[in-house]
């Protein structure tokens, strides 16, 4: 099989807080992303002193989306994954009435996508939530936030039900273990019990959104979204193998609850052993039975795990600490490149859940430099994506049901980790720089034409690794 299925969905993925800008326009409220002007790893800043943040304007997608969508259409996109900024719909998060200006903005965006024959996939919460819900409610550790999120989800389902048929609840929901403020709105000093209680509330809210979507838009599909943090044992020592099982369970747990509708025994034991007290009501248990229709995930890298403390020298990658794999090369950001790991992950998820899979993030961040003619020959990105897509094709032949592929950052955007644009992912170059300079002009990279041909040929143009 050289070609992908004809109904395979090709496209790209972006997030509101990384592309839109216009952070104080259209009635928008302040989000957790807004008070992290230097990214997930930066300190919280209330923005009272007009602190510069590249995200405030980002790439100005809020105003320039018609131009950007036209370029994506030129590549042949069948789907674009976006997120709705919760604070555009409910500026504080706890209002009873939504902001009409915010609702109207996304109406126009979805209409523009439809004009170009591009389906929308919408993430309800992508690395941001109303800051008011953090300062006044304490974030997701407060059960009241569930009600606020459910209200928000129902409003957008009713408003866009005829325009959007693909939905996701929380972006990389397992990220809360590594970045609690970004994931569940918990600030410094929170305990592990607080984090898992907040995660539980978010899992309940996700299930309530699934129930609401099934009731309000019965012909739509709603999925979860995992950070695919697959790790390998560093050696074949039994302790390394078991340690790896435990490490993978830390993120698979989120999939287990959202796909199977109940807490797995290994997680309940973890709570007991660590003396973590999570309040789970009988009503919660019933709610969790509303499981997702499909599983979506991001995949960038793998790592290794060892039980040997002396060898456990960790590196930072995709906000996860992993032991480097001595058999893999790394990107200039230290993320190890493992195309076969994507095939492995697809098989692991398919074997575990038997639910359709959707790869909603995958890509290579690099410092693209235009040449004297202003052109960017990003062969390194082409090679990376080609090799990963070849492994997706292999997984399809393995019998895995893969619905589609949306590359991360089809257009250059602001990174989540450090709020910089020098780490570029796009097929489309944006003339903006970390200091805020640049014209914001768009131009096509070499990879633009490569991806266009991949989509046109249904993957037949891919080169064997």
UniProtKB/TrEMBL annotation:
Its EC number is 3.2.1.86. GO terms for molecular function: 6-phospho-beta-glucosidase activity. The active site is at 361 (nucleophile). Keywords: Glycosidase, Hydrolase. PROSITE patterns: GLYCOSYL_HYDROL_F1_1, GLYCOSYL_HYDROL_F1_2. InterPro entries: GH, GH_1_N_CS, Glyco_hydro_1, Glyco_hydro_1_AS. Pfam families: Glyco_hydro_1 (PF00232). Belongs to the glycosyl hydrolase 1 family. NCBIfam families: PRK09852.1. This is 6-phospho-beta-glucosidase. It comes from Rosenbergiella australiborealis.
């Amino acid at each position: 099989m050289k070609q992908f299925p004809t109904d395979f969905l090709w496209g790209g993925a972006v997030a509101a807080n990384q592309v839109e800008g216009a952070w104080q326009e259209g009635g928008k409220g302040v989000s957790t992303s807004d008070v992290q002007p230097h990214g997930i790893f930066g300190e919280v800043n209330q923005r009272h002193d007009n602190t510069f943040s590249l995200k405030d304007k980002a790439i100005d997608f809020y105003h320039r989306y018609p131009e950007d969508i036209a370029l994506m259409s030129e590549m042949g996109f069948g789907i674009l994954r976006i997120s709705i900024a919760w604070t555009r719909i409910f500026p504080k998060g706890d209002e009873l009435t939504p902001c009409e200006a915010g609702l109207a903005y996304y109406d126009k965006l979805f209409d523009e996508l439809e004009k170009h024959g591009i389906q929308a996939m919408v993430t309800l919460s992508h690395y941001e939530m109303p800051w008011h819900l953090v300062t006044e409610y304490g974030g997701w550790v407060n059960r009241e936030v569930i009600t606020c999120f459910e209200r928000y989800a129902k409003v957008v389902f009713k408003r866009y039900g005829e325009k959007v048929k693909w939905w996701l609840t929380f972006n990389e929901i397992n990220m809360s273990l590594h970045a609690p403020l970004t994931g569940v709105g918990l600030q410094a000093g929170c305990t592990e019990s607080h984090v898992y209680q907040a995660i539980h509330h978010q899992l309940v809210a996700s299930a309530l959104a699934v129930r609401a979507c099934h009731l309000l838009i019965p012909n739509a599909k709603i999925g979860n979204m995992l950070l695919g943090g697959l790790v390998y044992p560093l050696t074949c020592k039994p302790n390394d193998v078991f340690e790896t099982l435990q490490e993978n369970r830390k993120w698979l747990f989120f999939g287990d609850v959202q796909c199977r509708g109940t807490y797995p025994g290994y997680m309940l034991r973890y709570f007991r052993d660590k003396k973590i007290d999570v309040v789970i009501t009988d009503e919660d248990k019933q709610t969790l039975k509303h499981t997702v229709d499909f599983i979506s995930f991001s995949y960038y890298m793998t790592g290794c795990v060892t039980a040997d403390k002396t060898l456990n020298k960790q590196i930072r990658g995709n906000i996860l600490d992993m032991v480097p794999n001595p058999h893999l090369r790394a990107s200039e950001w230290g993320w190890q490149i493992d195309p076969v790991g994507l095939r492995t992950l697809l098989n692991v998820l398919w074997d575990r859940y038997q639910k359709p899979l959707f790869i909603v993030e995958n890509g290579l961040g690099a410092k693209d430099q235009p040449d004297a003619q202003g052109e960017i020959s990003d062969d390194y990105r082409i090679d990376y994506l080609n090799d990963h897509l070849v492994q997706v094709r292999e997984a399809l032949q393995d019998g895995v049901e893969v619905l589609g592929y949306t590359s991360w950052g089809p257009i250059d955007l602001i990174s989540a980790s450090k709020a910089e644009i020098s780490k570029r992912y796009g097929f489309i170059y944006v003339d903006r720089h970390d200091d805020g300079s640049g014209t914001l002009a768009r131009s096509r990279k070499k990879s633009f034409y490569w991806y266009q041909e991949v989509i046109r040929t249904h993957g037949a143009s891919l080169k064997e690794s």
